[in-house]
């Protein structure tokens, strides 16, 4: 069993209605698996922020595994206990 913590920031935090949550996976998983699970859990509001019009991870979202930034769409295999942070663009003035 793989247990991961997903951390949301800015607009994603608002769309998920929480700052973080834990997800469990029966088998090793990738970032794409985590994105799909987050969308299943939170629906269209978060989907519109995480995915572009082609249903690929939006290039403006920064993704960190632990403290390391990983490219959007990376096929990195995640390990038990890791944290994944989704950082959405912040606007304001």
Describe the structure.
With 93 residues, this protein is an alpha+beta fold. It has a single domain (2-87), classed as Ubiquitin-like (UB roll), CATH 3.10.20.30. The chain is built from three helices and seven strands, in the order βαββααββββ. The chain has helices at residues 10-16, 31-42, 44-50, and strands spanning 2-8, 20-25, 29-30, 62-65, 68-70, 77-78, 83-87. The strands form two sheets. A five-stranded mixed β-sheet has the order 2-1-7-4-5. Strands 3-6 form a two-stranded antiparallel ribbon. A hairpin with a 2-residue loop joins strand 4 (62-65) and strand 5. Helix 1 packs antiparallel against helix 3. The longest helix is centred in the middle third of the chain and has 12 residues, at 31-42. The model has no long low-confidence stretch (mean pLDDT 91).
Spell out the key features of this protein.
93 residues; alpha+beta; Ubiquitin-like (UB roll); five-stranded mixed β-sheet; 3 helices; globular
């Amino acid at each position: 069993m793989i247990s991961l913590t997903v951390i949301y920031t800015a607009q994603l935090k608002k769309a998920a209605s929480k700052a973080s949550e834990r997800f469990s996976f029966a088998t090793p998983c990738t970032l794409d698996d985590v994105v799909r699970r987050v969308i299943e859990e939170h629906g269209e509001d978060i989907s519109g922020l995480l995915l572009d019009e082609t249903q690929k991870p939006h290039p403006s979202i920064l993704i960190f595994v632990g403290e390391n930034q990983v490219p959007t769409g990376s096929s990195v295999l995640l390990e038990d206990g890791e944290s994944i942070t989704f950082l959405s663009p912040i606007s304001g003035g």
